[in-house]
Amino acid sequence: MKVTAIGLLSGGLDGILAVKVVQEQGVHVEGVTFETPFFNAEKARSAARHIGLSLTVVDITDEHLVMLQNPRYGYGKNMNPCIDCHAMMLRVAGRRMVETGADFILTGEVLGQRPMSQTRQSLHIVAKNSGFEGYILRPLSARLLSETIPEQEGKVDRNRLLDIQGRSRKRQLEMARHYNITSYTTPAGGCLLTDPLFSKRLRDLFDHQTDTTVRDIELLKHGRHLRLSNTVKIIVGRHKGDNCAIQDLVREHDIVIKMKDYPGPLVLIVNGCDEEALLTAASICALYSDAPDDREVMANCHHPNGSFTSVSIVAARKEDVRSLMI
Predict the structure, then answer these.
(1) Would you say residue 210 lies in a domain?
(2) What Å distances lie between residue 114 and 40, 110, 134, 174, CA to CA?
(3) Residue 196 contacts by C-beta under 8 Å, 6 or more apart in sequence?
(4) CA-atom Rg of the chain in angstroms
(5) CA 285, CA 267: separation in Å to the nearest integer?
(6) Is 68 helix (H, G, I), strand (E, B) or coil?
(7) Residue 175's domain is classified under what CATH number?
(8) How many CB atoms lie within 10 A of CB 74?
(9) How far apart are CA 256 and CA 265, in angstroms?
(10) Do 170 and 237 have their domain in common?
(11) Fewer CB within 10 A of the end CB, N or C, for the chain?
């Protein structure tokens, strides 16, 4: 019976090479990648097309959001829970392995390439917490790591696996030329959880809201975010693209503000607010619009019940608004 593996693919060179190394031993590989609001599968799709690999895209948003709010091994420099995230991906891949009857899982991880998530200890922790330790093969560094079950069972020849370690990319680039691989992404980037500004907004969201939804996450990607109080946050569009994206994410409990007579931003008050906060938000809307800043102007407010009101305000001062920025 043909040996089959589930190969985790992100679109990077290491994952592609790991697939190639195992395929050379006659193993059939099915690619698997993941998507959430924080990262998508486009790079993996491109890589899979480039090497002719079948690819299954799995949306892990719900499971990922639960983990993200309380990761067992904490966050990295920003809001990236890399160890917990990798363990989750391997857990999902393991379930796929069981469902399809595959023999093992493979990844492109390289021992010592990343100082936090790819140390010997981290690789062990990730495998153990996935629930599939022993079935996770890392072909690029396998000869430096403990022997896996597929190696012990003779489904993979350990002598034909590699012993790459460290941050140098020299051997991988040589292999890319050997396999004629010309399309792949850089090793870093692609996950919003490593972005400092996005992470700051996400941390604020978790600090002030317990029932986080996908809509809340999507809103973090657009506009200026300002916190008026523990219960009131507003989002101010910076340009037409922001305004359109925010408008598409408006829900029934929100308040939307636009200037009456001047071009300007769409201001979203997430889940509504009281009258005082409404006036503050309207004044901020005026600040970022083409309205004059030295006299009263009108702002239109669309309320959750479908009603419409206009308020008279003076544009807020930049120095006052700066302290509200998230």
Answers:
(1) no
(2) 21, 8, 22, 20
(3) 78
(4) 25
(5) 6
(6) helix
(7) 3.40.50.620
(8) 10
(9) 10
(10) no
(11) N
74 in the Ramachandran plot: left (φ > 0), alpha (ψ -120 to 50) or beta? left
Cα–Cα distance measured from residue 91 to residue 111, given in angstroms and rounded to the nearest whole number: 20
pLDDT of residue 17 exceeding 90: yes
Q: In which domain, by residue range, is 247 found?
A: 222-322
Residue 156 and residue 37 share a domain: yes
Total count of domains within the chain: 2
pLDDT at 305: 84
Strand pairing partners for 311? 299
pLDDT (tens digit per residue) in 147-191: 999 999 999 999 999 999 999 999 999 999 999 998 887 766 689
pTM here is 0.92
Q: Which helix (H) or strand (E) holds 240?
A: helix 240-248
Judgement on whether residues 168 and 53 belong to the same structural domain of the protein: yes
Q: How high is the pLDDT of residue 189?
A: 65
Which 8-state DSSP code applies to residue 316? P
Angle between helices 13-23 and 170-178 (to 10 degrees): 60
**Do 172 and 248 belong to one domain?**
no
Tokens at residue 221, please? 């990607």
User: Is there a single domain that holds both residue 136 and residue 230?
Assistant: no
Residues in contact with 265: Cβ distance below 8 Å, sequence separation at least 6, in sequence order:
223, 236, 237, 238, 242, 243, 258, 285, 288, 289
